Amino acid sequence: MLKLEQVSVNYGATCGVAQISLEVHEGELVTLIGANGAGKSTTLRAINGLEPLANGRIVFNGDVISGVSPAQVIESGISHCPEGRRVFPLLTVRENLEMGAYRRQDRQRVKRDMEHMFDRFPRLRERHQQVAGTLSGGEQQMLAIARALMARPRLVMFDEPSLGLAPNIVEQIFSLITEIRTEGVTVLLVEQNAYAALEMCDRAYLLENGRIVTHGSAAQMLANQDIRKAYLGG
Ligand code: ATP
């Protein structure tokens, strides 16, 4: 479904990622793990059209999407739930959700989807008129996820959805991601919490210094002694 072929991104003289090749198949939950600065966010930003490629190409459902605008990437069916949530702080919860669907023409279905989001996130329904900047961290993360889903993506990318959240909220977010995938949305997940990510994914790629150093099924990665030592606390 999604294929990165030898993708490199540079930030001036600094290398963000180098020669990354990876695949996500329809219906999979694939995770990227790696230390701070390994290039995980850069990979998602490259897919999303936010970073120009120095090399390689990105193909989604048979179409080359590298070089197109972020808006066109969304239109092709990829949604991005960015690191740090990035909700529109001065807009209300409802307006944030509407922004997620701004490219859609099917306004009746948008309305229905909005109701569905409120059923799924009762906390957001309660606070639909509250400006997003005053929501708690966990509520903002739920809003960011709901906003990404309002685009009706075929593939959704989550960047560090558990960052800075209390353990019970983290659990909720992870079960939500699993649920989204069960509903047929393909997921590409970036997580600092490698153990949790490997527990819920089908396959994983490990990045170090901008390169993919190993990849495999969740079971293979969890059994890998080097990964256990470096990323899973032994
Ligand atoms: P983290 O887990 O800390 O978010 P990451 O694996 O997502 O890390 P990236 O944010 O992709 O890592 O960063 C990869 C490399 O690119 C790092 O060395 C980082 O300093 C560099 N980098 C990222 N964004 C920029 C930028 N806008 N300008 C310059 N260098 C950047």
Structure description:
This protein is an alpha/beta fold and 234 residues long. The protein has one domain (2-86, 150-231): P-loop containing nucleotide triphosphate hydrolases (Rossmann fold), CATH 3.40.50.300. It has helices at residues 40-47, 70-76, 93-100, 107-120, 122-126, 137-149, 167-182, 194-200, 218-223, 225-231, and strands at residues 2-11, 14-24, 29-34, 55-60, 63-64, 78-81, 155-159, 186-190, 203-208, 211-217. The strands form two sheets. It has a six-stranded mixed β-sheet, sandwiched between helices. A four-stranded antiparallel β-sheet has the order 2-1-4-5, with helices on one face. A hairpin with a 2-residue loop joins strand 4 (55-60) and strand 5 (63-64). Helix 3 packs parallel to helix 6 (137-149). The radius of gyration is 17 Å and the shape is globular. The two termini are 34 Å apart. InterPro entries: AAA+_ATPase, ABC_branched_ATPase_LivF/BraG, ABC_transporter-like_ATP-bd, ABC_transporter-like_CS, BCAA_Transport_ATP-bd_LivF, P-loop_NTPase. Belongs to the ABC transporter superfamily. Pfam families: ABC_tran. GO terms for molecular function: ATP binding; ATP hydrolysis activity; branched-chain amino acid transmembrane transporter activity.
